[in-house]
Amino acid sequence: MQVYCDNEALVKNVNKAREQSRPQFPNDALKASWDVLQAVVRLAKLLPQITFHHIKGHQDTQVALDKLSRPAKLNVQADKLAGSYQRLSSHKNIQAPMIDGTKCHLISDGQTVASKHRKHIRDHRRTKELKTYIKQKTGMSEAAFADIDWQSHERSVKTFKDGPHIFLVKFLHGWLPVGKLVSRYNPVKYPSACPSCDEPVEDSKHFLTCPNPERRKWHAALKTSLRHRCESVDTDPALLDLLLWGLNHWLQGTTIPAHRVPERIAHLLHSQTTIGWDNFLLGRWSRHWTTLQLQYLQRNHIEVKKKNHGLSWSSNIIRLMWDHCYKEWKTRNSARHGKDAEDKAQRRLETAHRSIRDLYDLKPRCSIQAQRHYFYPTVEDHFRRDTDARSLENWLETYQPMIMQNIRHRRDNSDRRLRQIDDVFHLIRTVPPSNPAPTVAPRQRTPTLTTRPITTYFRPHRITSPTPTLETPTTTARTSSTSNNPTTTAPHPP
Ligand SMILES: [Zn+2]
Q1: φ/ψ bin of 176: left (φ > 0), alpha (ψ from -120 to 50), beta (otherwise)
Q2: First vs last C-alpha separation in the chain
Q3: Cα–Cα distances in Å, from 157 out to 3, 106, 153, 316, 324?
Q4: For residue 482, what pLDDT is reported?
């Protein structure tokens, strides 16, 4: 008797295992489909007249069925039977019976795990934390969260190829570097405003709903693509309409008129609205979408194929939406950073000019020394001397932290009512005098400042009015104090 199977690895494993005489080890139970494998091997050892062979599957896609060999025809027939059973959603929630000799099963959430046990356990543990995070972040209720078709979402993530994975992860969790987010790092360098309209704060939603006419073009492109894709995979027209309405109303900021939705899918509208149509765009679909699609196919006697129902159908549409979102992200980035090399260089220059002008606005809050060390006389002088973006960015990288530190230092001293040395002494010489512009790194100049005597640069004021540090209540007291303390230098010694 000859047995054929299109799983070549299984045939090899069975033929190898039937030759082995060693007892079963505990780790053998971690092999994929161990329960079936051990049963086949055990029976094969009892029936040596049975031989196992590999047959290539799906040969009917290349050769007419009547021209195939008998094993190939039987394989095609077996595939159809297996496919019919697989399409029945009811069996998915049934725990598999334990076959004799299996000895142990991994059961998770009432489902038998037949392969990739370690990965399943790791995923199960991480998924729990991830779901808790998503619930907290989106504010979704427990019931709405449980209503999401996570299998479709998972399939879409795993099969998304139209953009980088890092984009998808940030997009799904609201971490795309939009203006609102990046302005927290450096509000001068990264403005929070939308690059395409007057919106002062660009957040994740505004990135998708920006009213700029050029930016809104993707809405129409998305709807057209969705309509074509859905029609090509036998989508229920009522589901297609709801899908387009839902997206359109979310993008427009309005609500779907419930009376326009057929009664038979009203529960879907309620479920998806509870989950949120923003989450719909993120691939968090209600479970009712795939259920209603399968019911539509069966009701209208449309052949159930791989692409027109279940996870393939839903993930196909979800990936299409994400593909359009990624294109829109690239459009938004062009608006922010420029379209071509020349445009990008111009944007860089504008950003550097803006940052430097903001720092020059802070110049009066710096000490006189810092003003002379770090700044040109005017910002226009600065731009005349440094004309390219790279030089300006280098200046910013070098001096911005020191300028901000200087301002903080002066502010702290002011809070403690400590006067600056500039307030007491005139600066009579700049460092270095021949170089008012900050072209030498301060790390090289600092030793010069600290090693030379301070009188190289400063001359005491001819103070006419008393200052807090030199203030004395009366002339008598000052005379008394100076006479008792010979180290104090009095302006007019007795
Ligand atoms: Zn905008």
Answers
A1: beta
A2: 128
A3: 38, 26, 6, 11, 15
A4: 37
Which residue type occupies 375? F
Ligand 1 centroid to Cα of residue 178, in Å, is 11
Question: Torsion angle of alpha carbons 336, 340, 341, 344, nearest 10°?
Answer: -10
Give the H/E segment covering residue 11.
Answer: helix 8-19
Q: At a CB cut-off of 8 Å and minimum separation 6, what does 35 contact?
A: 96, 98, 99, 102, 105, 114
Amino acid letter, 30 = L
Closest CA to 386 of 366, 356, 363, 362: 356
Ligand 1 mean position to 127 CA, how many Å? 35
What is the whole-number distance in angstroms between the Cα of residue 329 and the centre of ligand 1?
Answer: 12
User: How far away, in angstroms, is 336 Cα from ligand 1 center?
Assistant: 11
What average pLDDT is seen over the chain?
83
* 164 Cα: distance to centroid of ligand 1 (angstroms): 24
The pTM of the full predicted model, rounded to 2 decimals, is 0.63
Looking up tokens 């598999």 gives 96
Is 438's pLDDT higher than 60?
no
Rounded-to-integer distance, Cα 482 and Cα 488, Å: 6
Q: In sequence order, which ranges of 276-367 are alpha helices (DSSP H)?
A: 277-281, 288-299, 310-337, 341-361
- Give tens-digit pLDDT for 98-148: 888 888 889 888 888 888 999 889 888 888 888 888 888 888 998 999 999
More confident residue, 179 or 415: 179
Q: What are phi and psi of 54, to 5 degrees?
A: -95, 140
How far apart (Å, rounded) are the C-alpha atoms in residues 389 and 315?
Answer: 45
Beta-carbon contacts of residue 108 (< 8 Å; ≥ 6 apart) = 120, 121, 124
CA of 205 to the centre of ligand 1 (A): 10
d(CA 367, CA 409): 9
According to DSSP H, which parts of 386-441 are helical? 389-415, 421-424
CA distance 479 to 494: 7
The C-alpha atoms of residue 289 and residue 156 are separated, in whole angstroms, by: 15
- pLDDT tens digit sequence for 268-317: 999 999 999 999 999 999 999 999 999 999 899 988 888 888 899 999 99
Q: Which residues hold their Cβ within 5 A of ligand 1, which is an ion?
A: 194, 196-197, 199, 210
User: What are 333-354's pLDDT values in tens digits?
Assistant: 999 888 888 888 888 898 889 8
Ligand 1 center from residue 212 Cα (angstroms): 6
